[in-house]
Amino acid sequence: MIATVWRVAGVGFSLLLVLIAALLYGDSASQHAFLNSQIGEVTIGFAVRTDDLTVLLLAVVGVVATCVQIYSLGYLHERAASYHALVTLFTAAMAAVVVADSLFLLLIGWEVMGACSYLLISHYWERREARSGAVKAFLMTRLADVGFLFGIFVLGVGAGTFRISALDPAQIDPGVLTTGTLLLLVGVVGKSAQVPLQTWLPDAMPGPSPVSALIHAATMVAAGVFLIARLYDVFAASATTMTVLAIVACVTMLYAALCAAAAVEVKRVLAWSTVSQLAIMFAALSLGTHEGRHAALFHLVTHAAFKGLLFLCAGVLLHQVGSAAFVVLRRYTRRGRLRKALPVTFVTMTIGLAALAGVPGFAGFFSKDSVLEAAWEHAHGGSVVGWFVLVSVGLTAGLTAFYCMRLWLWVFFRTPALAGAVGAFEADDPMADLEDPDTSKLKDASWLMLAPLVLLALGAIALGYVDGLHLNWVVALASTVVVIFGVLPAYSLWSRGADPRPVLLEREFGVDRAYHALFVVPVRWLSKLSVLGDRDVVGAYVRAVGRSGALASQGFRLLQTGNVQTYLTAAVVGVVALAVLAGVIAS
């Protein structure tokens, strides 16, 4: 009964967000402050606001959260009450971030999302990888949030207010402005899994697939993009911060795309893809122009549709087949049976991958081209950052097309005869000689799970046309050529039964191992040293004091014999000793 109540409440809350966004749409911007206090010259309190950005993000969060909640009704039945309660709280926290006009209210929603993500990622807490992934996500994002907290105080005190709408870059000292925005950027980098705090997001995949869809598509990781878009005038006023943002974004998008190109698990490919696509949004924001901001938000909206769709499709594979990993799926894909047994999942996932790859006609094509167009215009203005972003996004688009084609072919189509290439999926498969499993009973999921897929698939197509077709045809043609050059190598490798994965890429550049050596090992040694110091130094003194007291008490106990003759003898000996001592001193 409790689980049912939470399920209905979760869906109802998500639908409420959509309704609120619809009611607010078209209204003029407004703010409302409450619980304000004046401390010296600084005003501290809470405030909310509604404007176009608020409506846009509430609609995105509401639609994706509704799809996730409905999908979860058919997907998850284990610990359902706590799951739906946490998803509802998670959605509410993102809504608080979106409507906040106070840095403190935004911080509350920001931190609640972090706590909920830890609990949702560890939903299957009996699995070791779920527990370790949740802890890793919590620690890395909390570490970044320390900088975020200090950034809030630096900006708020420097501006004399913590109201977002009242922050005026012209009234803030340039040094304070740069310091504050860089500290906020630390929190954004952690929350959105950008280099160098990117490793937590792929390891968060042991959580339920609907949770992955919600985190990757509409909440948490998207909060960083929203924050910079909300404080865009403040960030754009610091050239140093925007340059750092551009460097981080360009390095991240290429790094994550290369990792996705070598990953062998569907959800891990999609996770690295999320890191890469978020970096494209940050790169657009780093241009510091209105066109860049618009392109970033456009890509945020389309990404929410096709990435939410892809994670829910991966959830169907997990739910129906038993694993979302190529390592298991290959037994079903040797004869291409999955696309026949799961036709709706096949079609919708094809649409999602096409949108992600930037295939012309799909939403991702238009939004990615808007980023390229903004970078092209900025680069022609003589900006080095513009050229840097343009080249990086172009290379990333080619890599994205490569890993999308690779995933699509290896999951849904018949695996050709192996060419003996190193890294081929079945080269070391202990089940390769077994007969193909019976797929006669394999079928698509229930319509509770398929209906959200169809809705998001429609969004992955139609959202590209909402912004209007004002393409730069030169950029569009160039991006199409890039997609073709990305698709052809993936098809060539698949047709030869080869999937070479360089060791460097397969191990994701060894970043996790490096972090383990640089941070985990020293912390463990320091913790052991602290234990030794506490046990063998501080504890030794404590134990020595206690032992001394015990020995002294035992000595005094020996004197208390209860024999009067012994007491008199001791008294006489004492008197004689004192007399002798007094005589020695007197002489």
Task: Report on this structure.
With 587 residues, the protein is mainly alpha-helical. The protein folds into 3 domains: 234 residues, no CATH class; 254 residues, no CATH class; 72 residues. The chain contains 22 helices and 2 strands. The protein has a two-stranded antiparallel ribbon with strand order 1-2. Strand 1 and strand 2 form a beta hairpin.
In short:
The chain is mainly alpha-helical. 73% of the residues lie in helices and 3% in strands.
Q: What attributes characterize this protein structure?
A:
single chain, 587 residues, mainly alpha, 3 domains, two-stranded antiparallel ribbon, 22 helices, 2 strands, elongated, transmembrane, NADH dehydrogenase activity
User: Structural class of the secondary elements?
Assistant: mainly alpha
Largest sheet: 2 strands, antiparallel
The ordered H/E elements are HEEHHHHHHHHHHHHHHHHHHHHH
As residue ranges, the low-confidence spans are 418-437
Query: What's the β-strand tally?
Result: 2
> In order across it, which strands form the biggest sheet?
1-2
| Strand residues, percent | under 5%
Backbone shape: elongated
Radius of gyration, whole Å: 31 Å
Give the termini separation.
99 Å
The number of domains is: 3
Please estimate the helix content: over 70%
Overall residue-averaged pLDDT value: 84
Membrane topology: Multi-pass membrane protein
Pfam family, one: Proton_antipo_M
Protein name: NADH-quinone oxidoreductase subunit L
InterPro entries: ND/Mrp_TM, NU5C-like, Proton_antipo_N
